[in-house]
Predict the 3D structure of the following.
Amino acid sequence: EPEVTQTPSHQVTQMGQEVILRCVPISNHLYFYWYRQILGQKVEFLVSFYNNEISEKSEIFDDQFSVERPDGSNFTLKIRSTKLEDSAMYFCASTRRGNGELFFGEGSRLTVL
Amino acid sequence: GENVEQHPSTLSVQEGDSAVIKCTYSDSASNYFPWYKQELGKRPQLIIDIRSNVGEKKDQRIAVTLNKTAKHFSLHITETQPEDSAVYFCAASDLGNEKLTFGTGTRLTIIP
């Protein structure tokens, strides 16, 4: 069964450093998302991406965040200057159509020291 | 924007008993309500979903009910088993709005 894959599974970084989290969505999916989950809390929407552009973003997704689909398979989340409060599990998700079942990746745990 | 409330935050039931988790939502435009199960350290996985044109959906031991008038929906798990132990999240979204708004989660523990 096809899966969303994410790398790295865990990244530790110093505050102020740039981080890139990578995702490979399911190949025939058209909508891509990043969600985050602070430890022990709910899953929060960050951004959705369709047709090579951001379709919606939350208030969490400020100027420090950016997303890119550099080629036909990868979907990346960049945090330019990490803060302590960016420490969380970041989930990539994809779906074939909007408002359909979301398929989540295994997540990338980001620890900012 | 949408706001989803979920209760209870923790729930313990004896193996074989039923478990019910309830969610309310605020945006009357929401029309898609999935439930996700998340085991410790793992990704959320869809277990069942319901759209606003139906009031109930069942899949083996799992059922979801939706009351659009009252803006609430519930997850029902019957004949619970130890492997049902996990955190369960409800969510809501509306047509044309691709993002899911999640509830705060319910930690379900099945006592053998």
